[in-house]
Amino acid sequence: MASTTPRKLLAMFTFICIALLLSSSWVQFAEANVCQRPSKTWSGPCLNTKGCKDQCIRLESAIFGACHSLTCYCYFNCT
Q1: Which residues form the Knottins-like domain (predicted)?
Q2: 67 and 37 assigned to the same domain
């Protein structure tokens, strides 16, 4: 029994190290710099998120768009 304990500890240590490496790469992805600003081309109240998104991408070179508080917001990669 004593010989299996170091193997179990090594396996747990390896698993924890791999989990930490994977989680740090996800954190970097989640912290991508994305800036938002009201659309410069949308007019009127924003009631259609799909339309807002399509217009932001097509006309303003945004990566995404969405309606918030009746305003169309476009999202860009911050530089």
Answers
A1: 34-78
A2: yes
The pLDDT, as a whole number, for residue 26 is 44
Domain hosting 25: range is: 1-31
Query: Pairing state of beta strands 64-68 and 71-77?
Result: antiparallel
Residues 6+ apart with CB under 8 A from 73: 36, 37, 38, 39, 52, 56, 65, 66, 67
CB 33 within 8 A of CB 76: no
The pLDDT assigned to 56 comes to 97
Q: Using one digit for the tens of pLDDT, what is the confidence trace for 22-43?
A: 554 444 445 568 999 999 999 9
